[in-house]
Design goal:
Radius of gyration: 29 Å
Order of helices and strands: HHHHH
Helix content: 40-55%
Structural class: mainly alpha
Number of helices: 5
Number of strands: 0
């Protein structure tokens, strides 16, 4: 049987899960999915506080309510640094094309009454359409 070679980041995630077996238990219990865990791991990294409850020999750390805003900003900055710029540009172009299409549809519905549409062409002079013989 031919085995596909996995992406290096997936291999790293697998190693991370093997080092923290409590993650496997959470998925088996149905509390979360592999996809959610992988996305969190990819965005936030292994050192994020989200993984504290899964680490061996450590108890979950409860953060103080007076957490500094700079930590939050640093987290967002690290997420932005990890984003693929080409992929983001492609998504922005798709959104732009979708907005252009929506604007076109809206402009068709907002025609002025002076510009009759194809169905409103010259109404008959008489409400009854009889031909004279």
């Amino acid at each position: 049987m031919v085995q596909k070679k996995l992406h290096p980041s997936v291999e790293q995630f697998k190693d991370f899960v093997k080092a923290n077996p409590k993650i496997i238990q959470e998925v088996r219990k149905g509390n979360t999915t592999w996809k959610e865990l992988y996305e969190d791991w990819y965005l936030f990294g292994e050192d994020d506080s989200r993984w504290d409850s899964f680490r061996e020999g450590k108890k979950p750390v409860i953060k103080e309510s007076g957490e500094k805003k700079t930590d939050w900003i640093a987290q967002i900055t690290s997420v932005i640094k990890k984003m693929d710029q080409n992929q983001m540009e492609e998504h922005i172009q798709n959104i732009s094309q979708a907005l252009t299409a929506v604007q076109g549809v809206i402009s068709q519905f907002q025609r002025s009454p002076q510009q009759p549409g194809p169905q409103q062409a010259n109404p008959p002079t008489s409400p009854f359409m009889f031909r004279k013989d």
